[in-house]
Amino acid sequence: MKSTIKKIVIIVLAVFAALLIGLYLLISSALKREKVQPMDFTQNLDLKKPDPVKDQPSVLFLGNSMTYTNDLPSVFTQLSQSGGFMADVYELTEGSYRLEYFADREDEVGSQVYDALENYTWDYVILQEQSGIATMGEETMYSAARTLDSLIRQAQGEPVFLMTWAFKEGISIDLLAGLKYRESRDEMQTEIASHYINIAKELDAMLAPAGIAFMRCTSQYPEIELWDEDENHPSPAGTYLSACVLYNVLYDQSPEGLPYFGDVEEQTAGKLQLIAAGIK
Known about the structure:
Blueprint: H1 2-33, E1 58-63, H2 65-68, H3 72-82, E2 88-93, H4 99-102, H5 108-119, E3 124-127, H6 131-134, H7 142-154, E4 158-162, E5 171-174, E6 180-183, H8 185-202, E7 206-208, H9 210-220, H10 236-251, H11 266-277
Parallel strand pairs: 1-2, 1-3, 3-4, 4-7
Antiparallel strand pairs: 5-6
Helix pairs in contact: 3-10, 9-10, 9-11, 10-11
């Protein structure tokens, strides 16, 4: 009797182990098939230019902590003023928010977005997607982007997609049976960049590729720390670089030589200005 029970237990354990191994191989195979091929971050992006350039634009930022960390709207405002542009800047930001929440009239912040777009005039509305959602693209990001694009254009405004940056060390997720899903910084940035570029092209919208500027900067100036201690949010230098990219895109003018440095040392600011100036 004991021998029979022992055999049954062994068989059950063997079957269970086989199922785990099979599941491991299945997931592993799927991940390999979907392996991201990093893009060339130095390529010419052929960005849409403002027509015409506005000296006193009204600007509304819609984003989350990637935007409000280090107060990107304020840094952009002061950078603009240092270049002779009197931007009137406002923001509606909330931690971890996605474009789909901003596009939802029933959402608490979304209702404020609808009020802002229906009752006020904006030259530019900056749209910043949640980082993880941006890696998924069409399934989650595009529908909300289309809704917001329509609302902004009905209000005679111009949508501007602010492409965010990959996490400093990419993505690492524990799955099961010891399996981990890893995506390098280059791979994560490729997914984010591809989806921002695609939706901007589809909607004929302007694009501020801060994420690509991050990648170029880490290659040319690895000594500059663009990430905060959590390795996700921007450091003051990362925020300043994003502001410089926005300056280049919205004013069609190089930020090189601007006298405003924010919380960044002058020499570092000069390098970041140079990186942003090369975004075309």
